[in-house]
Each structure stands twice: as C-alpha cells, then as structure tokens.
Design goal:
This protein is mainly beta. The protein is about 10% helix and about 35% strand.
C-alpha cells in the first residue's frame, strides 16, 4: 500500500514537471502527507488545473464518508471488479502530485520496522495514478475525494514492501486525463511498476510514524 508521501517541490518545479497545468493554489512543502488530508491532484474533469481533494475515496453511493479511511489505495489488478473503483476507473481518473513516498521495512528477527523514503534519483516531482469521486452530503455540501492506485513492487521495492504506488510516466498523462470514458484495456498497460534504476530508497527518522510531524526531519536520510 501507500500510506504516506511527500510533496516538497516548489511551484516552479511543479510547473516545469507539469507544463500546461495552471498552478493556481499556493503549494506549501509537505513532508508527511497522511490519509484524510487534502492532497494536490489534477483531475480529468479539468486536466489543466491543480486542485485539492481529500485522500480516501468516498464512492458516490456511500451512505457516509467514513468509508474513505479504508479506501486510500486501490489495487490495479482489481480496479474493474470492485464496486468502489470500477466506475471511477473508467470515468474519473487523476494525477496525484508527489515527490516521494514512505514504506516501512521489516527488520529480520524483530518486530520493528524501519521507515524508508523512496524518491526518483532526479529529485523531480512525479504523479501517482489516482481515481477521484464526488460525494453529495445530505446537508447539500459536496466532498471531493481520491485514492492512489498500487501495483506489484519493482526490484528496488520488493525487499521493502509487497506493493508500490503506480508512478505514471509523463507521456501517459494525456491518456490518463482523457475526460471521456475509457475501456480498462486501454489504460491497464499504464499500471506497472516504475523503473527501479530511476529510484532511490533510504531510511529516515521514526518521527514520520506520527502524522502530526510534518517537517524536514521526516525526509532527511539517517
């Protein structure tokens, strides 16, 4: 799964990595983004503008939004089967902006786990493949939510965790953000592990275990 990530890049770096996207919101550095928090997305409903959605997908048919806490990730292999994801997969896709993500690696012979930060060697921001929904509350308000799609780990991630988020290559953005309904067979080939040769992983402070901590200590190598 992917339960924490970072977005520390400044607006200029984001603009360079996502040309043509209007960065209208002020983007502050985030060193320990956790579920239920607002995260930066580019939805296929308006694929030229950055917006903020709550992390944790709430399907439009849900009776209450608490289900979102259980739907922060969606497995790529079953997107077209699960009721919570299959419609969004065809119609409501998004890019979720990041520049790193955390996983916890087990220490052999102990119960302890070491938090690891995984990034691109270039240090550039990137985009997770995501799905989004709009939930209409009984009081008339709306809630925009999203989740991160995960896949099998690459060779870098395999010793750390048995899943990893799908990082889309920039050449896939146009297809992923197509506002029209798309057959799963068209976009399934995009949902693969990223090239391990382009990634790095290193241990970081256990401070990241607590989502209340959101500072540079969370991303500094030990």
């Amino acid at each position: 799964m992917c339960g924490r990530f970072t977005l520390t890049s400044n607006p200029e770096q984001l603009q360079e990595s996502f040309p043509g996207i209007l960065i209208t919101h002020e983007v502050s550095p985030r060193y320990n983004i956790a579920p239920s928090q607002p995260i930066a997305v580019i939805p296929n409903s308006d694929q030229t503008r950055l917006d903020y959605y709550t992390w944790g997908l709430v399907p439009h048919w849900a009776k209450d939004p608490s289900i979102g806490s259980r739907l922060i990730n969606a497995r790529s292999e079953t997107l077209d089967e699960k009721p919570a994801f299959r419609t969004a997969y065809r119609r409501r896709r998004c890019l979720i902006l990041a520049d790193g993500f955390f996983e916890w690696m087990s220490t052999p012979g102990t119960r302890s786990k070491t938090p690891m930060l995984i990034k691109l060697k270039s240090g550039n921001p990137f985009a997770f493949a995501g799905l989004w929904e709009v939930w209409n509350s009984p009081d008339g308000s709306t809630l925009k939510t999203c989740c991160i799609i995960t896949t099998q780990p690459n060779s870098l991630m395999a010793p750390i965790h048995n899943r990893m988020p799908v990082i889309l290559p920039s050449e896939a953005y146009t297809l992923w953000l197509d506002p029209l309904e798309i057959s799963p067979s068209t976009v399934n080939p995009l949902l693969v592990p990223d090239n391990p040769d382009e990634m790095i992983a290193f241990p970081v402070s256990r401070e990241v275990n607590n989502p209340q901590y959101d500072n540079q200590v969370c991303v500094q190598p030990l």
